[in-house]
Design brief:
With 162 residues, this protein is mostly helical. The protein is 68% helix and 0% strand.
Length: 162
């Protein structure tokens, strides 16, 4: 024997669990489902509590701001949100900087970041949007060999936006 001390006696709950270990699952589920029936009043209470919990969480998320507000602005119902999600996921798998740079250039230059300017009351979201917009413009202009020409093109593009 490995242990010199005997095993402690099973509590009544443990004993019930041990006996139920090899029961037929379908019969057990039928037995347990009978306990899940709620009256209309109980069902209404559950729904009210669920609504209250969801609303509390939503208010807390908006109060926190930061990344939660950014994720709300760029959710997966927007093309730009999908771009950011795909980019983040893909960058985890890319082994070299040159390929990562090409992916960033491709993804950021194709999105319409200006559609998100001023949508949020969050400074963080608006600053991030400007950063994405400028980066997208800069990577589009990288084909030009002259820094001066690229800056003039960027300035002209910015002046034509909003």
């Amino acid at each position: 024997m490995i242990h010199d001390t005997p095993f402690p006696a099973l509590t009544s709950a443990r004993a019930v669990i041990n006996r139920a270990y090899l029961y037929d699952e379908i019969r057990q589920l039928d037995t347990l489902l009978a306990f899940t029936k709620l009256s209309e009043r109980e069902q209404a209470q559950v729904e009210a509590l669920a609504r209250q919990l969801v609303n509390t969480v939503r208010r807390a998320v908006w109060a926190r701001g930061g990344i939660d507000v950014l994720l709300h602005e760029y959710d997966l119902s927007t093309e730009e949100g999908i771009v950011l999600m795909c980019l983040a996921e893909a960058l985890l798998r890319i082994p070299d900087a040159a390929t990562a740079d090409q992916l960033i250039q491709d993804k950021l230059s194709g999105a319409e970041w200006d559609r998100h300017l001023g949508h949020s009351a969050s400074f963080f979201v608006n600053a991030s949007t400007w950063g994405l917009l400028l980066t997208g413009m800069l990577v589009k202009l990288e084909t030009s060999s002259s820094l001066f020409n690229r800056l003039i093109s960027l300035w002209a593009t910015l002046l034509t936006r909003r």
